Amino acid sequence: MRLVGLTGGIASGKSTVSSMFKHNHIPVVDADIIARDALKKNSGGYKKVVAAFGPDILQDDGQVDRLKLGRIVFSDASKRQLLNRLLAPYISSGIFLEIFKLWIKGHKVIVLDIPLLFEAKMDKWTKPIVVVWVDPETQLRRLMERDNSTEEDARNRINAQMSLDLKKSQADIVIDNTGSRQDLQERFSEAY
Ligand SMILES: CC(C)(COP(=O)(O)OP(=O)(O)OC[C@H]1O[C@@H](n2cnc3c(N)ncnc32)[C@H](O)[C@@H]1O)[C@@H](O)C(=O)NCCC(=O)NCCS
Ligand SMILES: Nc1ncnc2c1ncn2[C@@H]1O[C@H](COP(=O)(O)OP(=O)(O)OP(=O)(O)O)[C@@H](O)[C@H]1O
């Protein structure tokens, strides 16, 4: 079985590339979805995170206020490391469970779409590593547009990750997504 690592920076275009893999009938495990499940009300991760960060991070319905928690952790590295440490066991076991389910169904190639592939040291499990790269200005603009966020919030999120150029230097395949969606489709078709 081949596990392809699909990574990049926030808003560099991983989800867009991941839908191209799905279009080619290659299944994708999305680490962001698994991380969201790990923080849903009453899950193991939720209980740990609420115990550590306090009830102020909760909405009226008891779910975690993701915007509020995001503001806290993306502007404070030690709080971010704490959140990462608390959720890591739930996220990694969720990822391996999803991969296992696809493997027993007989899939020979599976894509793991994970923004923190290198940061979480999961790069040793994947080959090839595909990095979706964009230039910094395009990344900032797309992130602000997509999330309707301020420049400060967007910069904090970008700075919370390993630099995109460093990720690019460790890639087996680089897909440049600075151009149009059509250009991206062409880059993808050249690589796959
Ligand atoms: C802080 C949280 C609640 C903010 O939620 P929000 O809905 O605003 O963002 P979302 O989860 O959709 O993430 C958007 C992007 O932010 C980046 N990001 C998320 N968590 C982190 C992190 N801990 N460090 C660096 N970048 C991160 C990723 O590029 C991700 O694609 C959430 O991101 C979270 O629980 N993060 C910790 C879990 C994690 O590490 N997730 C990454 C997947 S492995
Ligand atoms: N080539 C492109 N031209 C214009 N907009 C694009 C292009 N590629 C992606 N986008 C847009 O940029 C934003 C970020 O793309 P996408 O959501 O695929 O990134 P991502 O890497 O999956 O982000 P995250 O790390 O937050 O999950 C989205 O709004 C998407 O529609």
UniProtKB/TrEMBL annotation:
HAMAP family annotated for this entry?
Dephospho_CoA_kinase
Q: Which UniProt keywords apply?
A: ATP-binding, Nucleotide-binding
Which pathway does UniProt place it in? Cofactor biosynthesis; coenzyme A biosynthesis; CoA from (R)-pantothenate: step 5/5
Biological process according to GO: coenzyme A biosynthetic process
UniProt xrefs under PROSITE patterns: DPCK (PS51219)
Give a GO cellular-component term: cytoplasm
* Role of this protein: Catalyzes the phosphorylation of the 3'-hydroxyl group of dephosphocoenzyme A to form coenzyme A.
- EC number(s) recorded for this UniProt protein: 2.7.1.24
What family is reported?
Belongs to the CoaE family.
Q: What is this protein called?
A: Dephospho-CoA kinase
What residue intervals traverse the membrane?
none
GO-annotated molecular function: ATP binding; dephospho-CoA kinase activity
Pfam families (UniProt xref): CoaE (PF01121)
Keyword match ATP-binding: yes
